[in-house]
UniProtKB/TrEMBL annotation, chain B:
Region of interest (Disordered), ranges: 1-21
Keyword terms of this UniProt record: Membrane, Transmembrane, Transmembrane helix
Ranges where the HTTM-like domain occurs: 38-373
Biological source species: Streptomyces brasiliensis
Protein's UniProt keywords contain ATP-binding: no
Domain of life: Bacteria
Compartment(s): Endomembrane system
InterPro entries documented for this protein: HTTM-like, Sporulation_signal_mat
Protein name according to UniProt: HTTM domain-containing protein
SMART domains (alphabetical): HTTM (SM00752)
GO cellular component: endomembrane system
């Protein structure tokens, strides 16, 4: 009944109006189909079609529709990674001395614990910067391309901001980072057990400029 | 539109199965077309996601108020110059790249909060959705490296919402329309439009906009002008046509949003299936021992200590994520699934300390709630509000009555309105 009513009203429209509406329907159907196909190809595993059209898909998805839904997949992390930093400072006497290691991740975790609304600044900033930097390294441990360069600079600046220009009464000249990686270990009910000893991956010393603290 | 000629002249009285099938398909397509053109589909669902996503983003902006400069502003380790260098490669759109000053950043941040409130209340929803999207993109694209999945959801949804008619119910716009003030001159709307257009003209003149964004924003500006014109001067067929085109775009956007949510679950599930920890049922054990997602370590470790609970939660997560898109075809199963998903996300929000991600996903889940349930919930809220208002002895437009009018308005065929 309702549809008949609507249909007759639609027929009451002029042919120009009907074509505008028809055009809108076609346009929307095409746009939605293309959009969803692109999103699907962007998220789906690498396949023969996406290989051929990788450039087009990347260009379409761009940064506005880019999405990463492999949440804790294929496997969640099984290692707690703590980013630790130390500085080479110049004392008023002119001598260079190394500070002890500061566990920046532990400081973040302290702000997360018992906090129902943790800040992205503590939850994601350092954590993401570190993993992005590590991902940008080549086999020799050097950052690759513009992304690598920017990620190194970003990480250095995060650490510089947190340490500040003065540490232990000296001026920070160089910063060194390392990750302390502690495996979570197998569940207690598991038959196999693994070593949960903390291991370290040390990065080279990086020179700091006054700009990096701003 | 389709002519029904019998397949063969001799058997005119009894159409062949294929003719019946094509006639059936034709009828279904016609019914579908009538539905998406003549009415705003899923007005309550679109309102609930409008409210949910704007609330999530608003809450996040307020939460990060003290950290705003560190995350997106002048004090960020991801400096303005670095952001510009990077955004040149991916062409991410952010108004924060228009000017490198503290004041501009503060204006944008406050404006993003204001736009979220506008969209939440459904006040000038069309403009609000556009400003909301601009605010979301401005901040997120200024620093792409501090967000998580919650930001990703809000990012894409903010873009989709621009194309939905999400203010037809549960909004100040709906209330205005119900009071018959829809076709008025709307001075506030004109002022906002003029201001927005002036800013757009300025930045277009300065060459700060990509062609794609310029086309989109100018298109939306002119669409709004056309809306205003037909509302005021073209109440007959022009308005009907615009309503119908608007409904079609809305339907398309709602479909894309629904498919996007399915894609999130499907991808998340499909990749988990490939992981050995998800296969042997221990994945949750590891997650509950990661320092950055265990704000309640004692609770997390207690849950992780039970092999049975870990197994059930691990397998359960994979099962519901993979199954989700396929459960949507049956309304009862769908509603149960939505309830499961919402509980799962509430659990993630509390246990893993990801409240904004959880809120964004709960909103996405709410898209699939049945209309009757949403309306019942809406009525209950309206009643609670009106009861609270009744305590204050001020003369009021009864809120409940307004609610009912709003509902009627939402359901009424937009085709009938021009002939009012």
């Amino acid at each position: 009944m309702d549809h008949v009513d609507r249909g007759s009203r639609k027929r009451g429209l002029s042919s120009v109006s009907v074509s505008i509406i028809a055009l809108a329907v076609v346009g929307v159907v095409v746009a939605a189909t293309v959009h969803l196909a692109m999103l699907f190809l962007n998220s789906a595993p690498w396949n023969s079609f996406s290989q051929q059209h990788a450039a087009d898909i990347d260009k379409y998805v761009g940064s506005e529709f880019a999405q990463e839904w492999q949440l804790y997949a294929p496997n969640p992390q099984s290692v707690n990674t703590h980013v630790q930093a130390r500085a080479k400072v110049q004392m008023p006497s002119g001598t260079l001395t190394d500070t002890g290691w500061v566990d920046l991740t532990a400081m973040d975790d302290e702000r997360i614990v018992h906090n129902p609304l943790p800040s992205q600044a503590h939850q994601n900033e350092l954590h993401h910067a570190w993993s992005n930097y590590v991902d940008s390294l080549d086999n020799e441990g050097r950052p690759v391309g513009l992304y690598g360069k920017l990620m190194q600079q970003y990480l250095l600046r995060i650490v510089a901001h947190r340490l500040g220009p003065q540490v232990n009464g000296g001026t920070v000249q160089f910063i060194q980072l390392r990750s302390a990686n502690t495996p979570v270990g197998k569940p207690p009910w598991s038959v196999q057990q693994i070593d949960t000893q903390t291991s370290y991956v040390v990065q080279p010393w990086w020179a700091v400029t006054a700009e990096d603290f701003k | 539109m389709t002519t029904h000629s019998p397949a063969t002249p001799g058997r005119a009285s009894e159409p062949s199965p294929s003719a019946r099938l094509s006639r059936g398909i034709g009828a279904a397509v016609r019914r579908g077309l009538a539905r998406i053109t003549s009415d705003v589909i899923a007005p309550y669902q679109s309102a609930v996601i409008r409210i949910g996503f704007s609330l999530t983003w608003l809450a996040l902006l307020l939460r990060e108020w003290v950290h705003r400069n560190e995350l997106y502003g002048a004090d960020s380790p991801w400096s303005w110059a670095m952001a510009r260098e990077w955004n040149m490669t991916n062409r991410a759109f952010t108004v924060l790249m228009w000017h490198d000053s503290r004041l501009w950043f503060e204006i944008v941040y406050v404006a993003a909060i204001a736009a979220s409130v506008m969209l939440l209340l459904g006040w000038r929803t069309r403009t609000a959705s556009l400003l909301f999207m601009i605010g979301v993109l401005a901040l997120q694209n200024r620093n792409l490296f501090v967000g998580d999945g919650g930001e990703d959801v809000i990012h894409v949804m903010a873009i989709y919402l621009v194309f939905t008619r999400c203010g037809r119910v549960w909004s100040l716009d709906a209330r205005r329309a119900a009071h018959g003030r829809d076709g008025g001159r709307d001075v506030v709307g004109i002022v906002m439009w003029a201001f927005f257009t002036a800013v757009l003209a300025l930045v277009t003149g300065l060459g700060k906009l990509d062609t794609g964004w310029a086309l989109l924003l100018w298109g939306l500006v002119f669409a709004q002008l056309a809306w205003w014109l037909v509302r005021r001067y073209g109440p007959g067929e022009p308005r009907t046509v615009m309503e119908m085109v608007g409904n079609v775009v809305h339907s398309g956007a709602m479909f894309v949003i629904a498919a996007q949510v399915c894609l999130i679950y499907a991808v998340s599930g499909w990749y988990k299936v490939q992981g050995s920890f998800w296969q042997d049922g221990t994945a949750l054990y590891y997650v509950l021992h990661l320092d950055d997602v265990t704000p309640w370590p004692a609770l997390s470790h207690a849950i992780a200590n039970s092999s049975l609970i870990v197994l059930l939660l691990t397998y359960g997560t994979v099962i519901v994520e993979v199954a989700f898109p396929f459960t949507l075809f049956n309304s009862r199963v769908r509603t149960i699934m939505v309830a499961i998903m919402m509980s799962m996300h509430a659990g993630i929000g509390i246990l893993l300390g990801l409240p904004f991600f959880a809120l964004a996903m709960i909103t996405a889940d709410a898209l699939f709630l049945p209309t009757a349930l949403l309306r019942r919930a809406g009525d209950r809220v309206a009643r609670a509000v009106s009861r609270r208002r009744a305590v204050v002895p001020t003369p009021q437009v009864p809120f409940r009555a307004t609610g009912r009018e709003v509902r009627l308005h939402g359901r009424a065929s937009s085709l009938r309105r021009p002939n009012r």
